[in-house]
Design a protein that fits this description.
Elements: E1 2-8, E2 13-19, E3 24-32, E4 40-44, E5 51-53, H1 60-72, E6 85-92, E7 103-104, H2 107-116, H3 124-137, E8 143-147, H4 157-160, H5 167-172, H6 181-195, E9 203-208, E10 214-219, E11 222-226, H7 249-255, H8 260-269, H9 272-277, H10 283-291, H11 295-319, E12 324-328, H12 329-334, H13 336-343, H14 355-358, E13 365-366, E14 375-378, H15 383-395
Helix pairs in contact: 1-3, 6-15, 10-11, 11-13
């Protein structure tokens, strides 16, 4: 059974086609600059050279037409007919309170997604465009929506409610939703396998560390706390996002002449390691500058490591203990120095890293020493595979 995974952004479209009998990736690709001059789609399949399509893509539907043609092309395609696509799984950012799990898409689901769009105005409309375009091109193929927020719908009230007037919740659904749920769900299941234990008996902390970053406390297989909130702006310092700050900073800056939109742009796109370092939003560039003696770059990293550590400490308290800590995503999987900097200040958990194991990059493995009281792991995330698995389970 072949499942096509679609991830639509406002001007981009990522995809993977997976054979779910083996969970093998048959093809993958990325279309960029949709609706903008210079549109391009890069398609690749294992054992073949990448194929680049540089042609106008005014809409996501046009990009989908190009990728569908690439999948069945005699020279670089991987299937003979689009009939070999059994289902399509769509990454959907925000499901609000309506969805606590992935769902097969119907008219009612689409209506609910439209209603959630005000909670994720940059993401949900693009996700809906992808769903509707696929419905037009593959009208008999079931569509499944897989939500970044769904995994966190198990948060207890004391974790997801903000101490605002209660009517802010009843009127506008202002609460913590959390994101990266698909990633946290995937790596926690993999961690249980790596530890040789049942996830129902484990207390895990998943650290999804990249340009966007969040932590998740997973107790007995369920998310009970996470660092992102109503939006993906909350929590840790990130590539360009500030994370948690004193909310009074917003009206203070407005009183200094900034517009609300300018402050929003500042917090989302000009802050984080970029804002502090003044160099880049890419942690690799910032690490390189810090190694060269740049003090602002080092400060940006110190803030990031510090916030990860204190969040881990809070989550240990939330779960009354921890069995394993997971590092995943771009920085978490590849930066041994960041993992070391974070774990060096977690000795109260009995953590001791194996220097040789920690030097590995992007490979699923335990990196803590045998006598470490808490297991520390690196597990590459695979959100596309998680989406495909959820899709398969719903349509099989």
């Amino acid at each position: 059974m072949n499942v096509l995974v679609i991830n639509c952004g406002s001007s981009s479209l990522k995809y993977q086609l997976l054979d779910m009998s083996t969970e093998e990736v048959l093809a993958k690709g990325l279309a960029e600059r949709i609706g903008i001059e210079g549109s391009v789609l890069v398609h690749e399949a294992p054992g073949q050279e990448k194929v680049k399509f540089e042609q106008p893509m005014k809409t996501h539907k046009e990009a989908l037409n190009i990728l569908m043609a690439a999948l069945v092309d005699p020279s670089h395609g991987v299937i003979k007919s689009l009939n070999e696509i059994s289902a399509v799984g769509h990454r959907t950012v925000h499901g609000g309170e309506a969805f606590s799990a992935s769902v097969v898409v119907n008219d009612a689901v689409i209506k609910s997604l439209e209603e959630c769009s005000e909670l994720a105005p940059l993401h949900n409309p693009a996700n809906l465009i992808g769903i509707r375009a696929c419905q037009e091109l593959l009208p008999t193929v079931p569509m499944v929506a897989v939500f970044d927020t769904a995994f966190h719908q198990t948060l207890p009230g004391e974790a997801y409610m903000y101490p605002l007037p209660y009517e802010m919740y009843t009127k506008y659904k202002i609460r913590k939703y959390g994101f990266h749920g698909t990633s946290h769900k995937f790596v926690s299941a993999e961690a249980a396998g790596l530890m040789g234990k049942k996830i129902e008996n484990l207390k895990l902390i998943s650290c999804h560390l990249g340009n966007g970053a969040s932590l998740c406390a997973i107790k007995n297989g369920k998310s009970i706390e996470t660092s992102m909130g109503l939006t993906p702006l909350a929590g840790l310092e990130m590539g360009t996002r500030c994370g948690d700050i004193d909310p009074a900073i917003v009206p203070f800056l407005v009183s200094k002449g900034y517009t609300v939109q300018e402050v929003d742009t500042m917090m989302n796109k000009q802050s984080g390691v970029l804002g502090v370092s003044g160099i880049s939003s890419d942690f690799r560039d910032v690490e390189g500058a810090a190694n060269g003696g740049n003090k602002r770059a080092q400060l940006a990293l110190d803030i990031f490591h510090y916030r990860v550590r204190i969040t881990i400490g809070a989550y240990v308290a939330a779960m009354d203990g921890v069995d394993g800590i997971i590092f995943t995503a771009g920085l978490g999987e590849n930066s041994s120095t960041s993992r070391q900097a974070i774990c060096d200040h977690l000795k109260f958990l009995g953590i001791k890293l194996d220097p040789v194991a920690n030097s590995n990059r992007g490979k699923a493995m335990i990196i803590s020493a045998e006598d470490s009281k808490t297991t520390v792991m690196v597990i590459p995330t695979n959100e596309e595979l998680m989406i495909a698995r959820d899709t398969l389970s719903l349509v099989k």
